[in-house]
Amino acid sequence: MKNEEDLEANLAGDGQPASEEPTSVESSEARERWFQRLRKGILTSTADKKETPEGLWSKCPECNYICTTTELKENLFVCPKCNYHHRIGSIDYFDIIFDNKEYSIHFDNIRSKDFLGFTDLKSYQKRLDEIHAKTTLKDSMRVATGNVNGNGLVVAAMDFEFIGGSLGSVMGEKFARAVDYCIEHKLPYLVISKSGGARMMESAFSLMQMAKTSGKLSQLSDAGLPFISLLTDPTFGGISASFGMLGDLNIAEPGALIGFAGPRVIKETIKKDLPPGFQRSEFLLDHGFLDFIVDRKILRDKLTQIITLFKG
Amino acid sequence: MPQYPNRQFLDFEQPIKTLYEEIDKLKQTAEKSKIDMSDSIRKLEDAIDDKRKDITSHLTPWQRVQLSRHPDRPYTLKYIEKMTTAFMELYGDRNVKDDKAMVGGFAQLDGETVMFIGQQKGSNTKMRQLRNFGMPNPEGYRKALRLMKLAEKFNKPIVTLIDTPGAFPGLEAEERGQGEAIARNIYEMMRLKVPVICVIIGEGASGGALGIGVGDKILMMENAWYTVISPENCSTILWRSWEKKEVAAEQLKLTATNMKNFGLVDEIVPEPAGGAHWDYAGAAELMKISILRALAEVKQVAPDTRISNRINKFCKMGFWDEL
């Protein structure tokens, strides 16, 4: 399964597991072959290279439908053929949700730090530095405020690219400050989850963010402000076992993988294949854990409706 | 409590086993030759006591994890039995079933009614299976919440004893909402009007532990561990191999001393020399002292203040830079 693979690789902070070095063909038998390649490597000079502009075309991982990225973007990153919802980042969501793509980003000055000196195959600090160098992301969550059809809303959205959207101290603190902002300005709160779970490199501190965020939701609740939890592909572990499942409304995008334990772990535990559709949004709706499933194309309208209904 | 020769010894406890074997030999010789060897035996017994102290004074984090899983280590019901009187176990979540991996009920602690809740492991193969190795299903967390609400209604304090390798990762657990069950508990525990004391008595793994781990005071036994993931699973994900569990245990900084220094737990509950499995009554007595002290302290605070203190306590946890 594609999704379970990148789930763990991303939590480990890598795109792909390191591939094995190609074995060199040095045996005498190999040398005798007439089709033996004598000179290795690509010898075309860079100037003569014909470049295909990167990201011009996009292929749907579900139905293999190919369309231009512009077309896909106009369709809000939803496959025009099979309705597959591509994984998108926080900024894409802000652009989709807020009126005229106008919003302000808050608390972007909070940065993760390697307080424990955690080192696995790489040090945590090195991972952070590498991601900061490679992307414009500051951490796995961005908080923005703006209007949805004229209604004020605070949105916290996750970026899966940043160590698998993992829950660490920074996400916890941004979440907490967003709640304070909601209370101060009497605004509803929407959190868009997309995460493999807790950030292991912060050890018990990341675990405690589950308690911290839930405690803040308790304050939001006392202020009588609605909390909408939108779960997208994938949402696992510490997120689903804390604020992800604590929405006044829990909603999800179609086909998203959502659960507590990852599919691989469950499969290894029960030693059986998992039924088709297991841990998908539709499965959760069926079992009573979601209020409804929302297509990205009508997300803005649904949010407007929710806010209006809570206000009215 | 098992006595030698029914005791089980971990690798690093082997020197103690050797001393026991020497005592055995001396006893046999004494019987055969009718010579009084009680002096030598007493010396060896003292040596065992010293060795017990010596071993726990310099354990690696991974050895500490092994000790927390010692097959002779006491579990939740044992502590309740030793610390309290009139324990009345209560069953079921009123929804699906009774989860045997989560136990609870009212008992008298030093003359006062207290609600005890905790994960329960089994002490032999059959019981281990019945208790699902201390890994609760959603109904376990919902049973725990039901009991907490019951205690709140009658204004009784709550003590939770945490000992789990994690919430059960099963198919039915997902169907019945494992994530939601844990999330609900964390949220509701934040809002409980009565005092809540949590004690990590063995393994404190991840959300499965935190699902009964939100309280006014968090205590942790000397040889327990508490973190976001078990060292084995951490090793599998980050090192892509099961083999690095020792390193993972080190990197996770999961011991009671680490947790106390980080301010994530309030107090370390000392254990008898060599660990709780050497003296159940002694371990329970030490825990009782800590629980009573913590309870007395948090009872001084008004319920509303206690709740906001509780929320603030967890809100302070974390580290970041602010540019």
TrEMBL record, chain A:
The keyword Transferase applies. It catalyses: N(6)-carboxybiotinyl-L-lysyl-[protein] + acetyl-CoA = N(6)-biotinyl-L-lysyl-[protein] + malonyl-CoA. PROSITE patterns: COA_CT_NTER. It is an enzyme of class 2 (transferase). A zinc finger (C4-type) spans 60-82. Gene3D superfamilies: 2-enoyl-CoA Hydratase, Chain A, domain 1. Its main location: cytoplasm. Component of the acetyl coenzyme A carboxylase (ACC) complex. Biotin carboxylase (BC) catalyzes the carboxylation of biotin on its carrier protein (BCCP) and then the CO(2) group is transferred by the transcarboxylase to acetyl-CoA to form malonyl-CoA. Belongs to the AccD/PCCB family. HAMAP family: AcetylCoA_CT_beta (MF_01395). This is Acetyl-coenzyme A carboxylase carboxyl transferase subunit beta. It comes from Deminuibacter soli.
TrEMBL record, chain B:
The keyword Nucleotide-binding applies. It is found in: Cytoplasm. Pathway: Lipid metabolism; malonyl-CoA biosynthesis; malonyl-CoA from acetyl-CoA: step 1/1. It is an enzyme of class 2 (transferase). InterPro entries: Acetyl_CoA_COase_a_su, ClpP/crotonase-like_dom_sf, COA_CT_C. Its EC number is 2.1.3.15. One of its GO terms (cellular component) is acetyl-CoA carboxylase complex. It catalyses: N(6)-carboxybiotinyl-L-lysyl-[protein] + acetyl-CoA = N(6)-biotinyl-L-lysyl-[protein] + malonyl-CoA. Transmembrane segments: none annotated. Keywords: ATP-binding, Cytoplasm, Fatty acid biosynthesis, Fatty acid metabolism, Ligase, Lipid biosynthesis, Lipid metabolism, Nucleotide-binding, Transferase. GO terms for biological process: fatty acid biosynthetic process; malonyl-CoA biosynthetic process. The keyword DNA damage does not apply. Residues 43-297 form the CoA carboxyltransferase C-terminal domain. Component of the acetyl coenzyme A carboxylase (ACC) complex. First, biotin carboxylase catalyzes the carboxylation of biotin on its carrier protein (BCCP) and then the CO(2) group is transferred by the carboxyltransferase to acetyl-CoA to form malonyl-CoA. Acetyl-CoA carboxylase is a heterohexamer composed of biotin carboxyl carrier protein (AccB), biotin carboxylase (AccC) and two subunits each of ACCase subunit alpha (AccA) and ACCase subunit beta (AccD). Belongs to the AccA family. This is Acetyl-coenzyme A carboxylase carboxyl transferase subunit alpha. It comes from Deminuibacter soli.
